[in-house]
Each structure stands twice: as C-alpha cells, then as structure tokens.
Design goal:
four-stranded antiparallel sheet; elongated; alpha+beta; 30% helix; 106 residues; 3 helices
C-alpha cells in the first residue's frame, strides 16, 4: 500500500465540508482536512491573480487515486482543478487505519 496526500483548492464560497464528506463516505479518502483561509497567488490566463481559497488535504492510497481523481474532478468547480499528489510515509498503525478506511467493502 502506498499512502498519499492529495492537495486541492476550492473557492471560499464552496461547501468544502460537503465535498470532503462525499469523498470519505465513498471510501476514496480516509480523511480530508480543510484549511478554510489560504491566500493563493497564481498565474491564470496570462495574469497574476491573488485570491482567497480553501485548501483540502486528502489522505488516501495510491490504489484509490484514479477513482478519487474522477470523483473530485466531476464535482470540482474549477476549470483546472489542482490535484497534487505526494507519497508519504506513515506509522504502521496509521497505515493500517488508512488502508481499512478506503477498502472496498462491497
């Protein structure tokens, strides 16, 4: 099992909690942390933009990435959603919890 953290941002008016709930209930994420107030500076359509966003820190496994990406992109309000994937090392106990949390139970 490969533990990964996925970062994505949404606008300040998006219901990030509802999005996180969908991802966890679907077992695509074991946990989603929501950082409500971040300021992003980025280039978009030839201009430098500055604006408030919410950061979602999504914990999942490499095996669930494709399904997570599909679900997140289907629900994401941005034309080009951020989807940054970082492999991480976990403790044995946390890794076991993570795996059990995203396991297909059907």
């Amino acid at each position: 099992m490969t533990a990964v953290v996925v970062l994505t941002t949404v606008g300040p008016d998006v219901d990030a909690s509802a999005l996180a709930q969908v991802l966890v209930e679907a077992r695509l994420a074991a946990c989603v942390n929501i950082v409500e107030r971040v300021q992003s500076v980025y280039r978009w359509e030839g201009r430098v933009e500055v604006g408030p966003e919410q950061l979602l820190i999504i914990k999942t496994t490499g095996e669930r990435l494709t399904a997570l990406r599909e679900e997140l992109f289907a629900r994401h309000p941005y034309d080009v959603p951020e989807f940054v994937v970082m492999p991480v090392e976990t403790s044995e106990a946390y890794g076991a919890w993570l795996l059990a949390s995203v396991a297909d139970v059907s």
